[in-house]
Specification:
The structure is a single chain. With 338 residues, the chain is an alpha/beta fold. It has one domain: UDP-N-acetylmuramoyl-L-alanine:D-glutamate ligase. The chain is built from ten helices and 17 strands. Strand 11, helix 3 and strand 12 form a beta-alpha-beta unit.
Amino acid sequence: MTSPQDARRRPRTLSIGGATFDLFVRCGHRILQEQGGQRSFLLPLGAKVPVDGIIGGCGGGAANTAVGFARLGCDPCVSSVVADDEWGGALLHTLQKEGVRTDCITVVEEETTSFSIIFTTDDGERVIVYDAGTNQHLHDVTFDRERLKDVDWVYLNHLHERSCVIADDLVAALGAAGAPRMTWNPGGSQIRAGMNDAMNRALLGCTSLLLLNKEEALAFTGANTIDDALRAVIAAGVRVACVTDGKHGAVATDGKTLYRCPIAPATPVDATGAGDAFGTGCSWALLTGHDLPTALQAGSINAASVVGVLGAQAGLLTDTEMRARLTDLHLAVDAAPF
């Protein structure tokens, strides 16, 4: 793949977080039930349920964002932990094939690589059953803090609760002169701790792009509205804050202007990896010198491509495809004073 960036050094990125082997089970609608307005899958005990297909693939936040950066013409590395089992081997093979550097991945013995079983319907509904596996072993001993000195952009994905101990290394590195910029997509334990937790507060001050969905943003900040949540994290030192709200699109601010971007058109097949695709598209755009409205468009376009196919990585766009779609697809981004 030839990119306009090839004439100079490609931007170097480091994705930190989980790598997971995903097994997708296509169930159609035969096991869906609706009761009281709530839709759920029904798997009766003892039943033998036919499915429409089973497909294996690679996922996990760090793996997804690293592959996304590779497709977009960057020079990515991933920091994660896998086991020396079949699933770990598949993850390493896929990442290397995509052009992702894997020398920051720790391989452990006699463990199980993080594994997910994803039940999906034809219209993109899903239930994920997962085992965190080796993802819980990313901590001070296995995290290569020296790599932070050699990259232009860090993408901090969801972390297992035990892995949050690496936050102090990130704060120390990102506070140094010439430090890389960082996208942060907080994980469940960080969301529950809230933005006033001391380490979360320190991370916010080092964050160039904060990504949350609506539910996460309200829980993390304690705010009642998206706009109030954005004001809270900007006041805490975040440079750009973005909140996604499903079919309603995304809202973002740099502290001066509030931008609202609609979703890009797509026929949904599977939503797995859509958030990672959105974040990768946004981060790539900011890293390569685009403005915030264009970054939101890039995120939305990348996410729409991913939800249109099965799996977290199959629909990730190349830089050539992204640039073409940014030119051809005009998503109207509204702007207002913040």
